Amino acid sequence: MTAATTVRSATVWAIRYGLPGFAIRAASRRGDLIARLTGDPVLRDDPFDAYDQLRAQGGLVTNNFISATATHQVASKVLRDNNFIASPGGAASEFLDRVLLAALDPSAIGPVDPPSLLTIHPPQHTRLRKLVAHAFTPRAIGALEGRIQAVADGLVDRLPTDGTPFDLVEDYAAQLPVTVIAEILGVPAAMHAEFLNWGNDAAATLDPALGYRRYRRADRALRELNAWFDQHLARLRRDPGDDLLSQLVHTVEDGDQLTDLELRTTASLLLGAGFETTVNLIGNGAQLLLAHPEQLDKLRADPTGWPGAVEEVLRYDSPVQITARIAGKATELADRPVPKGRGVVVMIGGANRDPDVFTDPHTFDVTRSNAREHLAFAAGIHYCLGAQLARLEGQVALRTLFERLPKLRAAGTPVRRETRVLRGFAELPVRG
Ligand code: HEM
Q1: How far, in Å, is the centroid of ligand 1 from the Cα of 277?
Q2: One biological-process term from Gene Ontology (predicted)?
């Protein structure tokens, strides 16, 4: 890296993670609940009491810097109201956002930098989403079911069934989504291990208090990934495969087409948004069902319950716990004024445990009739583009695992990941 690149990358880190991290740690020490929920490692394992406390303080809770909600009603409103916008740079102010965007190095544009769908607004968002959605129609996703089933079966074939312990995350939960996402992106099997590493690094960059060392690692990985994608996209232009990325390369709608930068950012968003989230869905689901055998018995008695069970896992142990928006203009929420530019943290994991919507919200119940009202895939214009795919992967992965390994049981203490925005397991020791 040149000195200029290092300065740019340090500037991006300082604005995006250094300053917020400092403010979050200082406010956490004072006991500020929003800061603690965003960055206190103690709450990573079990944030649910703290969500309840936040909700008890009202629909919208405000400290010196930021507002937050853990109620389903206010969370839905913020996500669906286009006056609340996804921040282009993720910085705390418009000025810092501008500095950050100017400092961003084009070769280090990542899944949460413009022109990523996650950080652009209408009309740009409408245009790009329409183009990308071509590759994610229910028909395109449905067509992947046979392949997902074959991948799950192939992975279970390799798991030990003689009582030898293994790590369910490394040997199963992580393998299925990486294979699926690699096939969507037309990535050769030889690159899977590399993709697993890139996916892990990308996931870490979602946390607002990311340390400099981890940031540098993620930044380096991102540059490698971008360079690899540039070559890969050039290959797909010359010689398209039947993968979804090849489709995107050649999609033309009313004479409009994705630019090279949009294609590369979308590819890295699909990897960043679609990989670790799905690993966490499968890991969280497996752990919950092992810990609640009576729920697993219900699914064994009635396998048509699997889709509902996956909705309950998404609600109860949401793989994405937090997102945020910025008020694009002065407005009101829960009868409280919200000034223009105010950041609002949406505690998805808290909204999904709101007793006003979900009876006995802290009970894991695979037959819950309204589990699908969860906000695990957000809502509004940024509603997860991969929701159908994630649901399908979750259902196939969990059903196949428990049907084919009927003696599966825990073999040690599960270890949660260090991330706070994403919630899942780093290790899940089991035996079959
Ligand atoms: C269980 C797995 C998943 C969960 C919980 C999840 C969750 C989410 C959430 C909460 C958002 C909105 C973030 C925000 O508004 O701030 C989102 C957006 C998105 N997700 Fe997912 N996701 C999952 C899997 C996937 C998969 C498999 C893909 C694709 C391969 C994917 C692609 C996307 C994309 C492209 C967006 C941006 C949409 C936009 O801004 O218009 N996700 N996801």
Answers
A1: 8
A2: cholesterol catabolic process
Strand partners, 323: 346
- Omega before residue 123 within 30° of 0, cis: yes
What pLDDT score was predicted for residue 90? 65
The count of C-alpha atoms lying within 13 angstroms of the C-alpha of 111, restricted to the half-sphere facing its C-beta, is 22
Q: Which helix (H) or strand (E) holds 104?
A: none
**pLDDT one-digit tens code per residue, 249-260:** 988 878 888 899
Q: Is the pLDDT of residue 189 over 70?
A: yes
The answer, yes or no, to whether any atom of ligand 1 lies below 6 A from the CB of 277, is: yes
Name beta bridge partners: 167: 429
| 278 Cβ inside 6 Å of ligand 1 | yes
| Ligand 1 pocket member 296 (CB < 6 A) | no
- Percent helix, strand, coil in the chain, to 5, is 60, 10, 30
**Cβ(273) – ligand 1 distance below 6 Å:** yes
CA torsion sign for 21, 27, 28, 32 is negative
Ligand 1 atom at shortest distance from the alpha carbon of 116: 40
Digit-coded pLDDT (tens) for 4-58: 888 888 898 998 888 888 888 899 999 999 999 988 888 988 999 999 999 999 9
323-372: pLDDT as tens digits: 999 999 999 999 999 999 899 999 999 999 999 999 999 999 999 999 99
- Domains along the chain? 3-431 (1.10.630.10)
Contact 114, 120 (CB under 8 A): yes
Quote the ligand 1 centre to 278 CA distance (angstroms): 10
Section 102-116 average pLDDT: 85
